[in-house]
Amino acid sequence: MTDTTASEQRAADDDGSTGLRERRLAAHRGARRVLARFGFHRTLRERLELLDSAADVHDLDELSDVYGDGVVGTLEKKVAALLGTEAAAFFPTGTMAQQVALRCWAGRTGNRTVAVHALSHPEVHERNAFSEVAGLRPVRVTSEPRLPTAAEVRDFEEPFGALTLELPLRDAGFVLPSWEELTEVVAAARERDAVVHFDGARLWESTVHLGRSLEEIADLADSVYVSFYKSLEAFGGAALAGPEDLVEEAKAWRHRYGGQVFQQFPTALSVLVGLERELPRLPEYVAHARVVAAALREGFAAAGVPWARVHPEVPHTHDFRVWLPYDADVAAEAAVRTAEETAVVLFGSGWEQGGPGLAFTEVHVRSAGLEWTAEDVRTAVAEFVARLPGQVR
């Protein structure tokens, strides 16, 4: 299950009905102002428009790909160059890519135990795929809403062959460690003779907070997975990058897993467009997400909401969470009504229950969000709060 699908399903569940989710998506499509417009919100015709600029990124007179050659091979080389690795392999999904990477490492280390975070994607969103499909044994280093510390890795009570780190950790609020913390964690794993794999589904936008280039970040790990649709707005797909011999072995397992797809040129072209169009803009989105986050805090304080949190207070990427002292269904209804009545979408994702009388949602800032000023955000907060129970308009 992909992050987007899981997020939408959770939104449907936590909104209390499919009807509310449909209202939310309809309001989002018709809105004059949103913080992000994602590909999965668009029609098929609109999505195909992404390929209008494909001729700018690849020779369209070239023969189409067959089982991974042609444009797919070109994409693999481009990703390896961006990450500074020897090679990269295209995969249809990140779930498959990471299973393959870690089972390859297990064969090399002789240890099928993989140290993970309790909130990591394989633990939360993949139906125990590591153990059920890949034959791996995940162990949880920590469940704290942050990345593992060097001490936790160094002092873990049993051996493990690989440590996987999700950068950023989505289900803790899209959080990242500092560069110093990350290097210390990697060193602690290496002290235990473990390999390090980065779940870099959102690695592309992590350079701002870490203060390092993609090559420098990837160089810390033995292998890296990256996603193509979460921030690059491609049709789908992922890549596993690392040493050439590991990538060649991974390609054999990709075939066994059913990932050797006959033709993938539409997805591959959409990735090349995303790398050209979106990748250079990600730092701008991250910077503006911090403007939006600050304005949200100011807006809720001015509106008199007794307790509201933006987490992280200064976002680490262009995604973050907002927590409010209301039940999820209450916050969801207020968000949808605000969007329907003002044609402005402040909260475009569903709300989830985070405890009794406590709800949270994810906020995403993309190109559409750059149009918002801080005052626009504060005004939208006031409109939203006015539709919460007990508020007077």
From TrEMBL:
Cofactor: pyridoxal 5'-phosphate
Keywords assigned by UniProt, alphabetized: Pyridoxal phosphate
One Pfam family in the UniProt entry: Beta_elim_lyase
SUPFAM superfamilies on file: PLP-dependent transferases
Region annotation Disordered: where it falls in the sequence: 1-22
Presence of keyword Glycosyltransferase: no
Gene3D superfamilies: Aspartate Aminotransferase, domain 1 (3.90.1150.10), Type I PLP-dependent aspartate aminotransferase-like (Major domain) (3.40.640.10)
Domain Aromatic amino acid beta-eliminating lyase/threonine aldolase: 66-297
Family membership noted in the UniProt record: Belongs to the threonine aldolase family.
Keyword Nuclease belongs to the record: no
Species for this entry: Streptomyces djakartensis
UniProt lineage: Bacteria, Bacillati, Actinomycetota, Actinomycetes, Kitasatosporales
The name this protein goes by in its record: Threonine aldolase
